[in-house]
Design brief:
DNA polymerase, domain 1, 5 helices, 4 strands, two-stranded parallel sheet, two-stranded antiparallel sheet
């Protein structure tokens, strides 16, 4: 029996859009609002980690246990979404791939993995 493709599920970061520079920008601004000065190089050190782990690492580094990691995470995500809306760009070929999926009447999904702890 041959399987029929009915849907395509994408991850956004690094698959649909170029987002690493936007993540760094959001983290620099978000951490800065809480008194933690991070550089582009600092952000690169934690690239690939989940945002909760990044926040925990920098809060420990700056010895700031009184700051709500959840509030900081929400602020960074708020900034990131604004930056994506303002200047996010598709990775080459993605608009054509999405058009192909629509033409073939494939369902399109966007997925992410959220840390549930």
């Amino acid at each position: 029996m041959q399987a029929t493709l009915k849907a395509v599920i994408f991850d956004m970061d690094g698959v649909l859009i170029e987002s690493e520079h936007l993540w760094r920008r959001a983290m620099i601004m978000g951490f800065g609002e809480y008194g933690m000065a991070l550089s582009e190089d600092d952000c690169r050190k934690t690239m690939g980690l989940r945002i909760g782990d990044v926040i925990d690492q920098w809060l420990a580094h700056f010895n700031l246990s009184t700051i709500s990691s959840k509030k900081l995470e929400n602020r960074i995500m708020e900034l990131l979404l604004a930056y994506i809306e303002e200047s996010g760009t598709f990775i080459q070929g993605i608009p054509a791939l999405l058009a192909f999926c629509r033409e073939k009447h494939l369902k399109i999904g966007l997925a992410t993995l959220k840390n549930l702890t």
